[in-house]
Design goal:
Gyrase A, domain 2, 2 domains, 281 residues
């Protein structure tokens, strides 16, 4: 059943940004319903629905998750929008700087997120804490440049210059807005990449807010996503060989089902896990 309370609720992001769920179609029940078209009407209870959703996620049966769609209204800095739009599996309609005037709203980072370039990550920040006087100077410089750029933009717009040409010197820190519609399967893919600790901080803020919304709308599917995508990892063939040597003395068949259950595995998952270990060894 659709959660009405979360629709149109505005979740603040950064200084001027937000995420707002405009509407969504489908929920956990819709995923199960779509799967039952293929697998039959065998499950009815919540626990059975959960097991089926987890099975679908585990086996990468993605089409039932594509039956659920979310439409968001998002306000974000343009430099984040340029990263975001790389996910080409959504429908997007963005605020037009040709048709409308750009607003005097720019992203200014908080002092604690201003860092030097990382030495081992060419596209990320280091973890080094910088002196407060230095970060405050950076923020003040950013604010001054943003103010000057917008004042020049407004001056030529008011003088009659076309908005589409007046905007070209505005910085990437200015905010834009868009409507963004995407199915749940591709939204999970977006979150898996953008919630990762290596993703840029500013886009992680948005991803974490969207994740909180999904926890309300599709709690069973999100739980499965956390277990089988967000908090899981794959092993290469060489890594599996290393693991097989490390666990060569382990007798997997002698481990009790209670042990596996305490770790959070269901009966079907236990059997699948044992099969994986056999393949490795």
């Amino acid at each position: 059943m659709k959660n009405i309370e979360i629709i149109d609720k505005e979740f603040k992001c950064l200084n001027y940004g937000f995420v707002r769920l405009v509407d969504y179609m489908g929920d956990d029940a819709a995923i199960v319903q779509a799967a039952r078209t293929s697998y039959g009407q065998g499950t009815k209870t919540t626990s059975e629905d959960r097991a089926l959703i987890r099975y679908l996620m585990r086996q990468k049966h993605t089409s039932p998750f594509e039956m659920v769609e979310f439409k968001f209204h998002i306000k974000l800095p343009i430099f984040i929008a340029r990263q975001w739009i790389r996910h080409r599996t959504a429908n997007v309609n963005e605020y037009s700087g040709r048709y409308s005037e750009m607003r005097d709203e720019f992203y200014l980072p908080e002092p604690e997120v201003i860092k030097n370039q990382s030495n081992d990550n060419k596209q990320g920040r280091s973890e080094e804490i910088l002196p407060a006087n230095y970060t405050n100077e950076i923020i003040n410089n950013f604010a001054s440049l943003q103010e000057n750029a917008y004042n020049e933009y407004k001056k030529v717009v008011d003088a009659g210059l076309a908005r589409e040409i007046a905007r070209i010197n505005l910085p990437l820190s200015i905010y834009t807005e868009w409507y963004w519609k995407i199915d749940l399967h591709n939204l999970f893919h977006f979150l898996r990449l953008r919630m990762d600790k290596h993703s840029q901080y500013e886009i992680r803020v948005y991803a974490n807010i969207i994740a909180d919304i999904l926890k309300v709308c599709v709690p069973l599917a999100f739980e499965a996503f956390e277990d089988y995508q967000l908090n899981s990892f794959s092993l290469s063939k060489a890594e599996q060989k290393v693991l097989s040597k490390l666990i060569s003395d382990v007798k997997i068949e002698e481990m009790s089902e209670d042990f596996f259950a305490e770790c959070g595995l269901g009966k079907r998952e236990i059997n699948e896990f044992k099969e994986k270990i056999k393949r490795i060894m």
